[in-house]
């Protein structure tokens, strides 16, 4: 398979993730869509590493995974505490910080 | 161009010159600071300081007389007042014939009027303060005439303005007095601006303000600068001396106590303008146009004063307009240049005597008549106030120029000199001055007839607080100064004429020049003036003396009388030309400030606030809309980058 197919898949996944972030209201789903976008980027990084024959892209993908894991910890904790105080996980209900 | 005298350092008696003004200054300081403790003796201290100054002045005067005329100009430098950059001002006194003449007038008449005030103000609770302010006035006036530079003159000039303001507004509880004081102060300020500007020009052009240096170097002035200085000095003189077009404050200044009117607004302060022009004679010698303007102003004023004087019923206002008119004569005289400087000072001296005497007489009448000033309520007072009548009568005769009394010498000389002005000026100045002499005789005769002769109209009337009038002669402390001044009114003119005052003043004012080609011969002038004056007296007798004087002034009256009763519309003209436009201008400026300047500032602030209030609506608080804008922004940036890379 040519690298183009991987890049197309990566773009597709990124688009799905982005649309999901924009249209879904459930915080958990939004969070999963963000993960999807991160992994789409990881995929493209690995593809480019393959294309260029260097390890830079793969190293960056590892870094992204580590950061994503840390982010999951913090993000899920925030979502949990919001859910506990407001009895909902809808991102549209958490709109106090505004004009 | 007159020869400038050598200036010597004052020695001997003349070195006491500083005491002349320090004594009244001390008196003023003690009286104004000592408080009630000085109430018992304060007025005598006030009299004493001025009287002592007079004695010192006399001593210096005789000391000066003993010198050669060339050596009579002496100076005493007391200390350096201030030095800023190139401007170095000495606190120095100039003791010369001109300043000595004024010193004697100020302290002599001043001491008499202080003495009179002891009686006149006896029942005023603020008598001590009154004497303090009167002493302050004498101090400032002496500084004005004794200073040897223009800055010291300006100091005195402002000082007398302050004292005048305080004393006009003496009866503070009367709104009319407070207004009159403010009016006098403001109109003086208009003149003072002129004086200050003249001093600035002198400083810029010559770099010095000392009389001796200025007068030695006047030749360096361009003719334009000389004209500007003469006109600006004239503006200052007009303000201080109540000359056209700034004459309207002087009659209102009669709101002050009568001794103040006598000392400040008749004998001394209002003549400071004449002093200023006479002192600056080397500058006026340079500018014929400037002198002509002075003479024209004097002529207009002497006519205005004489005309309005005929219409008033208030005894002090008639005398005030008479003062305006007589100072007009002095301005006319000094406007004639070398032919008149000394004559102006001559008339100033004799006028100082008889007008102060007349005011003191008027004060005595008011004292007798319960402070009534309306002559229509007087009548037949000669029998009740014999001393006042006699002294007032002598002052009256001196003022209208009765032969061989004071006014006869000084006024006739001025009229004779004004006939000698070149060309049309001789006819105009001489004619107007003669006409005004006739008017003077008319209004003064009217005043005397209404006050001292005829029916005793006050018998049927009551005072403002509902009592009967009981006219009584004033105490001796008031009559003695009146007698002295009356004697002065009779003999001063003759004595000064015999002693040849113009020759004495020559070191300061230059030799008196007899004009050539006068349109009316000098010898004929006395006959002409006495004839016109007799005519004025006759007309007054025919119109006032032979008829009953109505207690209420007749209405309606002819147009000229109506105009004269309203000061020839001087106040209306000032109001229309100066005050109203000024008020409009300030209102327009306030409007512009409120709406224009403030509007700009407030408007831009409001525009910013309003637009940010709208902008903040973008912050909805919906996370997904932020995400959308981030995405949109990223797409835009990447699109732009791609466009650059691919293009």
What does this structure look like?
The complex is a heterodimer of chains A (99) and B (647). Chain A is mainly α and 99 residues long. Chain A contains 3 helices and no strands. In chain A, helix 1 runs antiparallel to helix 2 and helix 2 runs antiparallel to helix 3. Chain A is elongated, with a radius of gyration of 16 Å. In chain A, 12% of the residues are buried. The mean pLDDT of chain A is 91. Chain B is mainly α and 647 residues long. Among the domains of chain B are: 257 residues, no CATH class; 43 residues; 26 residues. Chain B is 69% helix and 3% strand. Chain B contains 24 helices and 3 strands. A 3-stranded mixed beta sheet of chain B has the order 1-2-3. Chain B is globular. The mean pLDDT of chain B is 89.
* Proportion of beta-strand residues of chain A: under 5%
Helix content class of chain B: 55-70%
Rounded to an integer in angstroms, the radius of gyration calculated over CA atoms of chain A is 16 Å
Strand segment count of chain A: 0
Structural shape of chain B? globular
Number of strands of chain B: 3
Main sheet properties of chain B = 3 strands, mixed
| Biggest beta sheet summary of chain A | none
Helix content of chain A: over 70%
Cα Rg of chain B: 31 Å
Structural class given helices, strands, pairing of chain A?
Answer: mainly alpha
């Amino acid at each position: 398979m040519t690298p183009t197919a991987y890049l197309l898949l990566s773009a597709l996944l990124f688009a799905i993730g982005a649309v999901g972030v924009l249209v879904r209201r459930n915080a958990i789903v939004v969070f999963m869509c963000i993960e999807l976008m991160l992994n789409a980027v990881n995929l493209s990084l690995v593809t480019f590493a393959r294309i260029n024959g260097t390890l830079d892209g793969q190293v960056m993908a590892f870094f992204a995974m580590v950061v994503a894991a840390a982010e999951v910890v913090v993000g899920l904790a925030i979502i949990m505490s919001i859910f506990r105080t407001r009895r909902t996980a809808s991102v549209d209900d958490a709109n106090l910080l505004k004009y | 161009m007159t020869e400038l005298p050598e200036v010597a350092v004052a020695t001997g008696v003349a070195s006491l010159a500083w005491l002349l003004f320090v004594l009244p200054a001390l008196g003023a300081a003690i009286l104004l600071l000592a408080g009630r403790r000085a109430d018992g003796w304060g007025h005598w201290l006030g009299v004493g300081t001025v009287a002592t100054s007079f004695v010192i002045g006399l001593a210096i005067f005789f000391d000066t007389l003993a010198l050669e005329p060339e050596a009579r100009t002496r100076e005493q430098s007391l200390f350096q007042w201030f030095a800023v950059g190139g401007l170095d001002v000495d606190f120095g006194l100039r003791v010369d014939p001109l300043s000595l003449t004024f010193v004697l007038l100020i302290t002599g008449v001043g001491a008499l009027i202080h003495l009179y005030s002891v009686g006149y103000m006896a029942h005023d609770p603020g008598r001590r303060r009154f004497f303090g302010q009167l002493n302050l006035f004498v101090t400032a006036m002496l500084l004005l005439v004794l200073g040897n530079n223009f800055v010291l003159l300006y100091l005195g000039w402002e000082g007398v303005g302050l004292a005048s303001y305080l004393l006009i507004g003496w009866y503070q509880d009367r709104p009319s007095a407070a207004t009159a004081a403010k009016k006098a102060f403001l109109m003086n300020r208009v003149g003072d601006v002129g004086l200050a500007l003249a001093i600035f020009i002198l400083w810029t052009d010559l770099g010095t303000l000392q009389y001796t240096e200025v007068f030695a170097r006047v030749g360096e002035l361009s003719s334009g600068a000389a004209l500007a200085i003469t006109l600006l000095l004239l503006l200052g003189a007009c303000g201080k001396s109540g000359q056209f077009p700034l004459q309207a404050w002087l009659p209102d200044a009669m709101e002050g106590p009568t001794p103040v009117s006598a000392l400040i607004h008749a004998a001394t302060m209002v003549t400071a303008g004449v002093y200023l022009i006479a002192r600056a004679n080397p500058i006026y010698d340079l500018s014929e146009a400037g002198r002509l303007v002075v003479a024209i102003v004097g002529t207009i004023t002497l006519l205005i004063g004489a005309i309005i004087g005929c219409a008033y019923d208030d005894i002090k206002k008639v005398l005030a307009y008479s003062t305006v008119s007589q100072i007009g004569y002095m301005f006319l005289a000094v406007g004639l240049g070398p032919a008149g400087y000394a004559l102006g000072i001559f008339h100033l001296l004799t006028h100082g005597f008889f007008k102060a005497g007349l005011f003191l007489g008027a004060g005595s009448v008011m004292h007798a008549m319960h402070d009534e000033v309306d002559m229509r309520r007087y009548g037949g007072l000669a029998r009740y106030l014999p001393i006042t009548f006699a002294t007032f009568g002598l002052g009256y005769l001196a003022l209208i120029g009765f032969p061989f009394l004071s006014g006869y010498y000084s006024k006739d000389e001025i009229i004779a000199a004004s006939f000698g002005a070149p060309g049309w000026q001789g006819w105009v100045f001489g004619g107007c001055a003669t006409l005004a002499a006739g008017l003077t005789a008319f209004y003064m005769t009217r005043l005397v007839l209404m006050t001292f002769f005829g029916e005793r109209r006050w018998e049927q009337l009551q005072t403002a607080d509902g009592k009967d009038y009981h006219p009584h002669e004033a105490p001796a402390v008031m009559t003695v100064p009146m007698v002295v001044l009356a004697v002065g009114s009779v003999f001063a003119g003759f004595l000064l004429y015999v002693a040849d005052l113009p020759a004495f003043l020559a070191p300061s004012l230059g030799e008196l020049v007899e004009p050539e080609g006068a349109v009316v011969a000098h010898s004929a002038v006395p006959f002409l003036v006495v004839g016109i004056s007799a005519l004025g007296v006759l007309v007054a007798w025919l119109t006032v003396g032979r008829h009953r004087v109505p207690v209420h002034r007749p209405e309606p009256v002819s147009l000229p009388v109506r105009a004269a009763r309203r000061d020839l519309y001087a106040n209306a003209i000032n109001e229309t030309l100066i005050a109203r436009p000024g008020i409009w201008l300030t209102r327009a400026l306030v409007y512009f400030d409120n709406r224009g300047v403030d509007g700009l500032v407030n408007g831009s602030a409001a525009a910013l606030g309003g637009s940010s209030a709208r902008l903040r609506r973008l912050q909805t608080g919906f996370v997904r809309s932020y995400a959308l804008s981030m995405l949109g922004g990223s797409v835009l940036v990447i699109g732009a980058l791609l466009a650059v890379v691919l293009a």
